Amino acid sequence: MPPHGSERFRFPMIAPLSRFRVWLFDFDNTLAALEREVDWPGGRRKLEAFLRAEFAARGLDDAIFSEIPRGNLPLYAALHARWLRGGASSRLTDAAALLQSASAIIEAIELDGVDRAAPLPGAPELLRRLAGDGRTIAIVTSNSSRTVARWLEGYRLAGTVATIVGRDSALALKPSSEMIYRALELCGAPPEDAIFVGDSEADYRAASAVRVRFLAIKPDRSTDGWLAALDSADIFASPGAIAAEFDEDSAFRRRHLDKL
Predict the structure, then answer these.
(1) Per-residue pLDDT averaged across 219-246, rounded?
(2) Is the peptide bond before 175 cis (omega within 30 degrees of 0)?
C-alpha cells in the first residue's frame, strides 16, 4: 500500500465527469443530512464514560479527553492513531477490540438518527443515474457501514452501491487515504479511473493523497478556505448539480461519437 500523506494535488480539468467509471462518495453532508439528526453530545458522554472506565482499568493516561474535549469521531480517530499506529499499542494488546466497542457506541447513536436523515438534493437521482449507466459506486465514510446500508435501504438505493468502506473497517479515518485505497481495491480500479465526492477538507486531502479527482459538495463555499485549492468547476451546490453536469458530459460524448 502506498504511504499515506496530505500532499495536495489538482487533477487536470481536461477530463470530463463521464470519463470516470468508479465513483466514490462520502456519506454525511454529501449524500445524506445525517449530522443534524444525531445526538452527538449525548453520544460523546456515552463514549467518554466507556473509555474512561477502560482507561482506569488499564492505568492509562486520560489526558486525551482534555486534548479533544468535544466530538466522537475526532476522539475515535486520535485513539486509532495512538493505539494502532503509535507506541501505546505495545501496552494495549486489546486495542482493536476496544476501538470496535467505541465504534459500536458511535454507531448506535448514528442509527438512532439515520431514519430521519433526508437525502441532499438530487442524491438519489445521481446514484441511480450513475448505476444505470454502468458506473461502480462505493461509499467511503467515517460513519458505520451499517448506518449507511440502512439509509440506502430506506431510500431503495442499496442496489446502486457496490461496496461501503466505513469506520467499522477498522481503517484510519480521513484525511488518511486508507479507506480510499481499500475502496479502489474492492472496485478493482486504479486512482485515475476514479472520482471522489465529498464535503470536507479531510475528504479532499484523502483524495489528493491518492491522486483521485475530487468534487466538493458545498451549498455555501464562503467559509471554507480549503476550497480555494479546487478549480471552481469542481465545486457543486448539491449532488443534483453533479448529475446535471454528468448528463451534459455524456450527451456531448454521444453526439461526438455519432459523428465519427
Answers:
(1) 86
(2) yes
Domain ranges of the chain: 17-33+119-258, 37-114
Cα atoms in the 13 Å half-sphere on the side-chain side of 34: 26
Provide the whole-model pTM.
0.88
17-33+119-258 CATH: 3.40.50.1000
Query: Is residue 78 a contact partner of residue 69, using CB atoms and an 8 Å limit?
Result: no
Classify each residue of 168-204 as buried b or exposed e, where b means 16 or more C-beta atoms within 10 Å of its C-beta.
Answer: bbebbbbbbbbbbbbbbeebebebebbbbbbbbbbbb
Give whole-number Cα distances, 244 to 50, 160, 255, in Å.
46, 18, 17
Whether the CA torsion 145, 45, 75, 73 is positive or negative: it is positive
Kindly report which listed range (13-22, 74-83, 167-176, 235-244) carries the lowest average pLDDT score. 13-22
Per residue in 43-91, pLDDT (tens digit) is 999 999 999 999 999 888 999 999 999 999 999 999 999 888 765 544 5
**Per mean pLDDT, which range of 42-46, 90-94, 177-181, 251-255 is the poorest?**
251-255
The span from the CA of 40 to the CA of 70, in Å, is 9
Alpha carbon separation from 157 to 72, 111, 126, 137, 150 (Å, rounded): 27, 17, 11, 11, 10
Q: In what order do the strands lie in the sheet with 163-165?
A: 163-165, 136-140, 22-25, 194-198, 213-217, 235-236
Sign of CA dihedral 50, 53, 58, 59: positive
Is residue 242 within 8 A of residue 236, CB to CB? The reply is yes
